[in-house]
Amino acid sequence: MSAHTFQAHRPALTTAPAPAAGTPAAAPAPLTAAAPRTAAASAAAGGVPAGRDAYAHLSLTRTVPKEFVHRASVAEVLLTDWQRTGEDRFTVSAQWPRGHSFFTPIAGYHDPLIAAETIRQSGLLLAHTEYGVPLDHSFVMHDLSIALDPAHLRVGAAPAALTIDVTCSDITRRRGRAASLRYTSTLRRDGHVLARADASCTCTPPAVYQRLRGNRTHTTPLALTAPTAPQTVGRTSPTDVVLTPTPHPHTWQLRTDTRHPVLFDHPVDHIPGMVLLEAARQATTAHLGHPTLPLTLTTTFTNYAELDTPCHLQTHTTPTPGHPAGHQTTHITCHQNNHPVFHSTITTTTP
Question: Which residues, at least 6 apart from 259, have a Cβ–Cβ distance to it below 8 Å?
């Protein structure tokens, strides 16, 4: 379980100007036979207007508001637009840069983990804009699976423009807002399917989150440990390494640098899920002993990863039945205080 907590510093976004009174907005089906909620009613409830009517100025030439995807830096927003296409069905637009400060290309391919970040942002965007979740709610991602086609991951002569078809299901609501949901996504580039993904998350009000976390919301991170050699984990800079070597084979300690401008884009009280995914990827590369390009990634989060206690990752490989020669499957488990934090299975090829 990995919570994404973001404190919005622009309250106006939670009470954005509403359309004319009585104008219905694209919203989830109501819980009762009552009339559909208007954008004004959604704003009055503490959320954002359902649908994108209040943000009709958005287009493919600019990113969505950073608050909707829980980023402090505009530069880290990957999504550019969205629209409803049916009941609980949406199309989201995204753009991947040819070069990114952290999701750097791998042998001419876009980093597959930028797809995972795109999926993460899509779920947040739709929860806030289409399902009435206020910006001050915390998100807990429970699982994420993604399968990619490397044929469409090649870095081209321009940034990659993507369309993402998203279907939301298993939606639970409280007070008319989504409390949890699952969303499946198909990412396309130039009409070709680049990736398919599935994820689920819950949305937690501030008071509930505070009770869940208790005094963990004000912990002091561990002292920064020494990084594993960057070249052994597919990195060029020690700043981007999230593992520390240990005396035990196929075992690493998680290294958390809360000053990292991408992995820790804003202050948090736990280790973000994207840090855990990067740790799983780096551990896979270190375990196999050669550069890797992830093709599938399946992760289940079971507990918060705390900042003030060591986390340890262990790896082992298994045969990959049904896959071409050269594909390898690595299993990564992470424990903290003798409790599981997450488990990942990553199938890779050599780029």
Answer: none
- Closest Cα partner for 4 from 158, 112, 144? 144
- Closest by CA to 334, choosing from 350, 309, 323, 320, is 309
How far, in Å, CA of 100 to CA of 263, rounded?
Answer: 13
Instruction: State pLDDT tens for residues 328-338.
Output: 999 999 999 99
Terminal-residue alpha carbon distance, the chain: 31
Task: Kindly state the average pLDDT of the residues 157-184.
Answer: 97
Give, for 187, the enclosing helix (H) or strand (E): strand 177-189
Question: How far is the C-alpha of 199 from the C-alpha of 168, rounded, in Å?
Answer: 10
| Spatial CA neighbour of 164 closest among 112, 95, 73 | 95
- Tokens coding 286: 């270190």
Work out whether strand 251-254 and strand 243-245 pair parallel, antiparallel, or are unpaired: antiparallel
DSSP state for residue 157 in the 8-state scheme: S
The answer to whether the beta carbons of residues 196 and 187 sit under 8 Å apart is yes
Which tokens sit at 314? 């262990």
User: What are the tokens at 23?
Assistant: 């104008």
Beta strands in 42-134 (DSSP E): 79-86, 89-96
55 near 65, Cβ under 8 Å? yes
The distance from CA 323 to its chain's CA centroid, rounded to whole angstroms, is 27
pLDDT band (50, 70, 90) for residue 43? very low
CA distance 180 to 185: 17
Structure-token match 């949406």, residue found: 90
pLDDT given at position 3: 53
- Span 213-248, pLDDT tens digits: 987 877 889 999 999 999 999 999 999 999 999 999
What pLDDT score was predicted for residue 316? 97
| pLDDT of residue 186 exceeding 70 | yes
Q: What is the pTM of this model?
A: 0.84
